[in-house]
Design goal:
Helix content is 29%, strand content 16%. By secondary structure, the protein is α+β, with helices and mostly antiparallel strands. It has one domain (5-82). It binds zinc ion (ZN).
């Protein structure tokens, strides 16, 4: 990637020129279309700046995303909770 990025206040990478979130941009490339409003891009390994395709997962709603987190918390125990967010 040649475009310049920076970390925003939430810890996500954004492009300097457009201010667009890098993981959302990448997710759009992964699925080959624009993300709809309300679609959530999740970082599989919880590392917000790891925007490899394999680390990005798209949910069609906030609810579906939340449900996934709850399910993961169950199956993986408390390990994920030791990380911030
Ligand atoms: Zn998530």
């Amino acid at each position: 990637m040649t475009k310049k990025t920076y970390r925003d206040a939430q810890g996500y990478l954004r492009f300097v020129d457009s201010g667009k979130l890098v993981h959302r941009w990448k997710a759009e490339r992964k699925i080959g279309r624009k993300l709809q409003l309300g679609e959530i891009v999740h970082h599989e390994n919880k590392i917000k700046i790891d925007n490899r395709y394999s680390n990005l997962r798209i949910f069609n709603s906030r609810k579906a995303h939340q449900a996934y987190h709850i399910k993961r918390a169950w199956t993986r125990g408390r390990r994920s909770k030791t990380l911030k967010r």
